[in-house]
């Protein structure tokens, strides 16, 4: 067995040098372009860490609906672990690809609210719009859709902005204007991203792989950063969490391949390898939480 | 007091012989008929065990909205106990009767995803459509609305279906097509249901009744399978859970009839008898969970 | 330090004498007026203690959608602590101001359902409509919007009203009619409110203030009844909960002003003073729950 503790790289958010060519192509206008009203009704999709016990999400929606009643509002989730930008960025990237063009994403996980972090609008080649703070949250989703142009929202020009609730007063307000097809060029200016969050990547060795748990879903499935799964010649794998041996799991294709209560490694609906327990809860069974390091060793059995 | 332990029947899902006359009447066409576009906008009502911490529900909605922005999406609940088909079937049946015709129900509690279980569309006489797996989940709701015709979805003809997320790739995709009024006859074929789940029925004796807890609601009310309540000459009843004596409760009509913290038996908004504690939590007070056997004995007091 | 225990007043809901001039102005008609259909689509905003594990919220929505598919349904929250009218009234008042005119609020926290409490429609000067039980829940929100007229719903004329689910059978049904622009004058009559719930007010002393925790939000921020915050010359404050010293906190403007894990007092997005812990949970750190008395003493430090 290899030394697992030395193999892991890129497990924490990384800043990489700004790719100016990608983000600010001269082929595209620098003025913010209103949505083409001949298209379908816009969707406004919301992802926050606001939970469901407060009025915050409703106030975000009310602010959008003040500008237009013809947007379709969809909650992605509001249960991101408080202020966990990495988990939020992962979930936003997961969800965003399923939404059609002319979707406006409003994502608010914003521990720096009230400080100097910028408020962003990112337009993608795929016709999607991402609105949120410049703290990396939007980057994995937006970059997968190929970034067309990045704008800073001139929050200082928006009236009645509170100190702590930019989700409503800045992001939702601007999302409402965009969804309504209004011209917001006076409220925006071209901008260079300061934070380009990279989701962790697995590190592959000879018969082993190190990865990170990005998310634990409702069923307790531990979703790793291994996109596409394990090689086809892995039939059984040993599972280590934070260097501690946990179990031996079948490598399979669907949950019902193993007996009730037995572990299985498969590529879930997310497209990432996950550790599951059939009709059980892998997170509770093995004590796994988002951010944990999870390693797999191909078994000879 | 009668022997309670021998009296209970039909407390677990039953398969009953297929009633061919009911399900496949020659009076109705065998081709799937698109929704009449002159009607109101369709409602798409969703019931799953996906919870609210993941992107699954949002991906289901995005998939529907890709096909039409003019459906009204409504969440029934996504908090069904993971893979609990009986609870899901009960809640779907409860909710479905309140929805108007031209509602498309998408219900996904699907422990057999990826195995050979069929994907269904059930059309009812009441103009409602039920879409979900052939595992009994849809049956109690659909049969109450009188089944007009059952179709299998030819999932094998749908492109890009993942192994584990048929909720999005099959059920939501087809629901979107139906909501958009598109012809899906090439994707469907007449089908005979393999699982006809029956909700448990109470067993009545001389001054006693045995039943099953189908659901515990947010207030901790234990909802039994006794539709319509107890006979009008029952004023007080003794309560047994799994054969253990728990309490004596008033048989009443509304919660405020008893003092704070006192138990009461009444027919709730669901139409079923429930054991409640006024301004309290019957489930926690008496240790009751869905699936428990609950019995009542008429008291002479 | 002053005697904190003697200073607190108005911390519990108060009934005050009815102001007949305000509630029943002769300048306004006594017949219920249908919504002006030339306006934007109505919003129907829902606040209940129904939680998310049951079908109750979906049945409320289905009932509204039976009357019109053109209302925009928005959940404020359904996680109000069961039967906690004060918390519900506070959250409704918080949320209501962000919604535009032509919003119909349906608020159901209704421990007296089935008893003789009236069902209300309150019209405000701001063009908003509040529908719910006459138990104080609607009053703080509606009175901030200036009450134009109060009506009782003649529930006895509505067919098929269950004993326990007026949220669906009375309030949602009437909300659907109002949202559809239908004439409901035959179902309503002018009414004098019996309960005018007042939210608690802080009591100010020389260098100290006593208040009440109205709500604990998802982040664990303890939201007090001190609207607008502390005087600008308070830089640091000692914090007492139920007369017990808890901590010394900076008085600031945004969370990031203090280090991770440190307490801060600021005016949050709600407009009320809240005790927060930067990237932490003030409620758990200091053992605070809604209804607790919380007092602040200006520190000389």
TrEMBL record, chains A, B, C:
InterPro entries reported for this sequence:
SAM_HAT_C (IPR046470), SAM_HAT_N (IPR046469), SAM_OH_AdoTrfase (IPR002747), SAM_OH_AdoTrfase_C_sf (IPR023227), SAM_OH_AdoTrfase_N_sf (IPR023228)
Region called Disordered, residue ranges: 1-22
> What Gene3D superfamilies does the entry give?
Bacterial fluorinating enzyme like, S-adenosyl-l-methionine hydroxide adenosyltransferase, N-terminal
Pfam families in UniProt = SAM_HAT_C, SAM_HAT_N
Q: Which UniProt keywords apply?
A: S-adenosyl-L-methionine
Domain S-adenosyl-l-methionine hydroxide adenosyltransferase C-terminal: residue ranges: 213-294
* Residues of the signal peptide: none
UniProt cross-references to PANTHER family, sorted A to Z: CHLORINASE MJ1651
Name the chain's protein: SAM-dependent chlorinase/fluorinase
Taxonomic classification, please?
A: Archaea, Nitrososphaerota, Candidatus Caldarchaeales, Candidatus Caldarchaeaceae, Candidatus Caldarchaeum
């Amino acid at each position: 067995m290899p030394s697992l503790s030395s193999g892991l790289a890129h497990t924490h958010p990384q800043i990489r040098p700004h790719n100016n060519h990608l983000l600010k192509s001269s082929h595209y206008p620098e003025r913010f372009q209103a949505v083409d009203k001949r298209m379908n009704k816009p969707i406004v999709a919301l992802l926050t860490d606001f939970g469901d016990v407060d009025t915050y999400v409703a106030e975000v929606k009310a602010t959008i609906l003040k500008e237009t009643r013809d947007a379709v509002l969809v909650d992605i989730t509001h249960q991101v672990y408080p202020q966990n930008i990495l988990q939020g960025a992962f979930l936003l990237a997961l969800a965003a690809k399923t939404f059609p063009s002319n979707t406006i994403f409003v994502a608010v996980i914003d521990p720096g609210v009230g400080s100097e972090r910028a408020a962003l609008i990112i337009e993608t080649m795929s016709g999607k719009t991402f609105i949120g703070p410049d703290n990396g949250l939007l980057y994995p989703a937006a970059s997968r859709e190929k970034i067309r142009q990045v704008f800073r929202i001139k929050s200082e020009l928006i009236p009645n902005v509170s100190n702590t609730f930019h989700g409503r007063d800045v992001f939702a307000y601007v999302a409402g204007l965009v969804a309504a097809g209004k011209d917001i060029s006076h409220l925006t200016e071209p901008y260079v991203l300061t934070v380009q969050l990279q989701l962790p990547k697995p590190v592959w060795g000879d018969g082993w792989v190190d990865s990170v748990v990005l998310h634990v879903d409702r069923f307790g499935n531990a979703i790793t950063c291994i996109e596409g799964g394990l090689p086809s010649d892995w039939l059984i794998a040993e599972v280590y969490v934070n260097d501690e041996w946990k179990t031996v799991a079948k490598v399979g294709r669907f949950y019902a391949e193993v007996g009730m209560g037995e572990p299985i490694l498969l590529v879930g609906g997310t497209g990432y390898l996950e550790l599951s327990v059939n009709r059980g809860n892998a997170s509770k069974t093995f004590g796994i939480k988002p951010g944990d390091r999870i390693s797999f060793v191909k078994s000879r059995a």
